[in-house]
């Protein structure tokens, strides 16, 4: 395995001029290729902030974030946009699909931004919609899809450009039990078969049960980092 994410002693501080509040406090974190990891903790513990720092959506006040050895904290805003486009897939709680585009158009949009030619876009979209078991929904708009289907399209969009890893912020929060289970089945299969790295921020026990590593944050600090064993799904792994 090789290190995909190396967050070295990163902090994010608010209200610096009055009473400082550490959303992330001196966190050191390695994520290896192929991990299926859950960040857990109470609301306000810093999970989403940490994901945003790792994904280059925000910059730390201290420390470094290295992705495959590249220090992204030193990149300009334009460089970060280009880096995220080429290297990181994002899945959000609220799906964030473009309502006027079809499911197919939502997934291929990011490839259009990259300048991928049409034939390659079409082939990649077909592959992804087969993987998410929605080949019959290519021409449906988001409003015509269930929440679970929309989130599956969001996963396909995150994977469209074959990113280094996927950051998923509470991806099952708006889903019913069956939709959440279907989505997690798909992501676990992609993780196993294609070694796609997933890092989740979650409160959802359903996600935690599937994770092979569980990292707990409290008040912006990592308080535990353990391998997870799921008797229900029969797997174990992660960092001891």
UniProtKB/TrEMBL annotation:
InterPro entries: AAA+_ATPase, ABC_transporter-like_ATP-bd, ABC_transporter-like_CS, ABC_transpr_LolD-like, MacB-like_ATP-bd, P-loop_NTPase. Keywords: ATP-binding, Nucleotide-binding, Transport. Coiled coil: none annotated. Residues 5-236 form the ABC transporter domain. PROSITE patterns: ABC_TRANSPORTER_1, ABC_TRANSPORTER_2. Pfam families: ABC_tran. SUPFAM superfamilies: P-loop containing nucleoside triphosphate hydrolases. The keyword ATP-binding applies. Gene3D superfamilies: P-loop containing nucleotide triphosphate hydrolases. GO terms for molecular function: ATP binding. This is ABC transporter ATP-binding protein. It comes from Mucilaginibacter aquariorum.
């Amino acid at each position: 395995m090789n290190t995909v994410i190396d967050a070295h002693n990163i902090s994010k501080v608010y209200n610096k001029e009055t009473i400082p509040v550490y959303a992330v406090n001196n966190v050191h974190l390695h994520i290896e290729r192929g991990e299926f990891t859950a960040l857990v903790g109470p609301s306000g513990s810093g999970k989403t902030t940490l994901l945003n720092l790792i994904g280059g959506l925000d910059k730390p006040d201290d420390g470094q974030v290295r992705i495959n050895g590249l220090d992204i904290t030193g990149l300009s805003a334009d460089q970060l946009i280009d880096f995220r486009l080429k290297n990181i897939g994002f899945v959000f709680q609220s799906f964030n699909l473009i309502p006027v585009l079809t499911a197919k158009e939502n997934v291929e949009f990011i490839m259009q931004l990259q300048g991928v030619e049409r034939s390659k876009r079409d082939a990649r979209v077909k592959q992804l919609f087969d993987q998410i078991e929605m080949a019959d929904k290519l021409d449906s708009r988001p409003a015509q899809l269930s929440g679970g289907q929309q989130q599956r399209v969001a996963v396909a969009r995150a994977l469209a450009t074959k990113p280094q890893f996927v950051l998923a912020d509470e991806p099952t929060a708006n889903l019913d039990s069956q939709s959440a289970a279907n989505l997690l089945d798909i992501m676990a299969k992609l993780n196993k078969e294609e070694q796609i790295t997933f890092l989740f921020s979650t409160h959802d026990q359903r996600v935690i049960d599937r994770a092979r590593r569980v990292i707990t944050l409290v008040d912006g600090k990592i308080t535990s980092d353990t391998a997870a064993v799921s008797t229900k799904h029969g797997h174990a792994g992660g960092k001891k």
